[in-house]
Task: structure prediction
Amino acid sequence: MFEKFTLDRMISQIKSIFLTSVQARLPKCADTRIFSRRERSGNQVKDERQREKELAEAILEYLAEYPQASDTLEGIAEWWIMRQQVRVEIETLVKVLRLLTKSGLLEKTGEGDKALYHLKAI
Result:
């Protein structure tokens, strides 16, 4: 728990520094995307902003883990982003499996990485 808290705090600090740095380097008229976004529906804009936020977090989390990393656009998409998404999906899957096991729908056999899950016999 201590390691997770420290990592979360470090990621938060890196994000803050990164965003402040990026915003300071943008010219005042640089965000022309705002105009095109206004033409789209509110939900599309929210979804796009949420996705941008998720991608920024994935990149910053990767860089928090590998601060010396550098890559091309394709490399970042394939390795940095996909790695973070798989990590998140695994964390979510663990929660769902625990919930289904606790609710009695699944049964867990074994422990750790070798544990097997199957439909619980009635």
Summary: Residues 73-102 form the longest helix (30 residues). Residues 29-37 have pLDDT under 50 and may be disordered. Strands lie at 106-109, 116-119.
